[in-house]
Design brief:
The chain has about 350 residues and is α/β, with parallel strands linked by helices. The chain is built from 13 helices and 11 strands.
């Protein structure tokens, strides 16, 4: 019944859009004149129609926002890259569907990890990894029956088995997770999830006695009392970030936090350069994660994460600019598990083939 309603709603929206488009084209005398002169044989009629349809439609972003908003209101989905589950919850399609040749791509990334770790260990740098579990796995109570492929459900276990032979200490960010730990409209941790991940990583580093500076740094994290709306990346990806309910989910709310670092000594005293580096993906750049990590470890950390890093983007960038690694004794490597089955990037392929 739900599928029939979704199909009917989609057809009604498309029919309404077509009717509006035909109404706007009906009064164009120039279009009728050009159609009489054009030929069906050489594609002229199609070309004329394409040109006038493009002029008749609203601006691309505006039209996309209208259409996606209507689709979300009618069906709960607004874009092929984003899926909705419980009311207000959005998820990346990439985390849900099966990826062709995913096991092959995973095997290639294991080989890539061996090469990366060898290069870093030769520089005397210890590495600890923090693979980030999928949002669909960590927030199961928010799925409301959302269909997930078996490949996606087994991804974390598949990585654990495949990576068992790597000379790599890994942090378990799944066990004891502080639910939900993710923004409703974003693919990333919320502040509770970021703080949990930071604490779990700091505990693992301390337990393994990995190399860090001996002298802790005094720090204080101040959180604003007021909240503000936060439109997530999944809203932007679906093209509904400027819409209001019911044409989009309600925005998340957030409180800004500021980390203050207090260096001991006078202004002219030498301050030791950080010996710990964070090299990760957008997870390391969101929700104050690095602030929570510095606070938990009581020391400054060099941030070398970047958007779109995927599995190895940040590490490859560092190895191409090795001077950035001078003085670093411990590298925290974070990446989202959802990328493991995706085809290797050009940079990953090139490094693996060296």
């Amino acid at each position: 019944m739900a599928r029939k309603f979704t199909t009917l709603a989609f057809l009604l929206i498309m029919a309404s859009g077509c009717a509006l488009l035909l109404w706007r084209l009906a009064g164009e005398t120039a279009l009728a004149h050009k159609l009489r002169q054009a030929s069906w044989l050489d594609g002229g009629v199609t070309q004329v129609l394409d040109q006038h349809i493009g002029l008749a439609l609203p601006a691309d972003k505006t039209a996309g926002r209208w259409i996606n908003g209507l689709l979300y209101a009618a069906t709960g989905d607004a874009d092929p890259q984003v899926r909705s589950a419980c009311p207000g919850w959005l998820f990346l399609t990439e985390e849900i569907v099966e990826t062709p040749q995913g096991e092959r791509h995973l095997a290639q990334r294991i080989a890539l990890a061996h090469k990366l770790l060898d290069a870093l260990h030769r520089r005397g740098i210890a590495v600890i990894a923090a693979p980030v579990p999928d949002k669909v796995e960590q927030t199961g109570a928010a799925l409301c029956g959302l269909a997930i492929s078996s490949q996606a459900r087994q991804r974390r276990q598949a990585w654990r088995q495949a990576s068992a032979g790597l000379p790599l200490l890994q942090v378990d960010l799944s066990t004891g997770w502080v639910a939900p730990g993710y923004w409703r409209t974003d693919s990333h941790w919320d502040r509770d999830g970021a703080a949990f991940a930071a604490g779990r990583i700091a505990d693992a580093i301390a337990a393994a006695q990995l190399p860090t500076p001996a002298q802790p740094t005094a720090m204080r994290l101040t959180t604003d009392a007021t909240t503000h709306a936060r439109s997530g990346d999944l809203m932007r990806l679906a093209g509904i970030d400027r819409n209001q309910p019911p044409f989009a989910p309600p925005a998340d709310t957030d409180r800004d936090a500021t980390l203050q670092i207090e260096h001991s000594g006078g202004l002219l005293d030498d301050v030791a350069a950080p010996a710990v580096m964070l090299a990760g993906s957008s997870y390391s750049l969101n929700s104050g994660f690095i602030d929570y990590l510095q606070l938990q470890m009581k020391q400054e950390i060099v941030q070398q994460s970047r958007l779109g890093s995927g599995f190895a983007g940040s590490l490859l960038d560092l190895l191409q600019h090795p001077a950035r690694l001078d003085g670093i004794r411990l590298l925290i490597w974070e990446w989202p598990l959802r990328v493991l089955y995706q085809p290797l990037t050009k940079d990953e392929q090139a490094y693996l083939q060296q």
